[in-house]
Amino acid sequence: MTESPQSKRTSSSRRRGSDEDASPSKIRWIASLVAAPVILSILWPAILLVVGYAAWQQWGSHYVAHKYYGVEANAISVTQPPDYVRSDIIETVYRDAAMDKMSLMDQQACAKIASAFASNAWVRRVVGVRKLAGGRIDVRLEYRQPVAMVHVISRHPDRNGAGFFAIDGEGVLLPDTDFSPSETMRYLHIIVPGAYPTGGVGSEFGDSRVQAAALLAHLLHPYREQLGVTSIGVHGDLRQNPIAQLEIAGDEKDERWFWGSPPGAEAQTEPPAMMKLQSLIDGAPPGSDLRQVQYVTAPIVHNHPSIQTSRIGSSPAAPTR
Fold this sequence. Notes:
Elements: H1 5-69, E1 76-78, H2 89-96, H3 109-118, E2 123-131, E3 137-143, E4 146-153, E5 162-168, E6 188-191, H4 208-220, H5 224-227, E7 229-235, E8 245-250, E9 256-260, H6 273-281
Parallel strand pairs: 1-3, 4-6, 6-7
Antiparallel strand pairs: 2-3, 4-5, 7-8, 8-9
């Protein structure tokens, strides 16, 4: 069966119409394929740039900072510690403060290093921190000085009987591991009934009576051997007088002097601490009440580091670390 000429013309016309309808869509599709590389050539670098920057901020910068600009323990130098500091200050601070995770690229590096050293119990004040060439760090420190041993009855389950806690002139607890039992005899003993520390090493003892005695121990420490003074005790009842009244004892039995208020907390009619100390040096006999000393025309000069003292019973000044 053959198609008529009319049918052939109709079929041919339909094919031409279909081809004409498809041509614009094909052209658009081909054009999109041509244009895609142009768009991607602009879009892909932008995407890679954003992703790369985010990855650098998240991982790369930290890796480089710690790999090539990290803080090394052997690159840190500090002020030479006194002989009584037996522990390794640099090693202890580096470990406790996780300084291996710090970076010299950090703008706050010096402040963080200063804070790390200030947290050590032996450090009274961080004078300054400097970053030097070659990744070296110089730290200037002022150390605490032990001036007394506080006599206590141990409350630790592994220790029985009497013991001592080392403190400085501000009543701050010092590491007792740096002192042997025989070395406790080289310092003034503070004897306060029922005293026991409320905080840990590097914090204040936590007893106003011990704090008052620590101020006096700081004053007497350079003259301890000259005066033959061995201990400081508390006299009287704090319920009657909120300011601890102190007495000092010597080498001989019943050799005592009544000191009175701690340095910086004297009553209006009470002589200052330096006048009392001068009276002791001049040979005040045992049993003397040093609050009754007369004015001395040529008082001694207190030439060892001073401690800023607040009046006992008032809000204490924040310790400088």
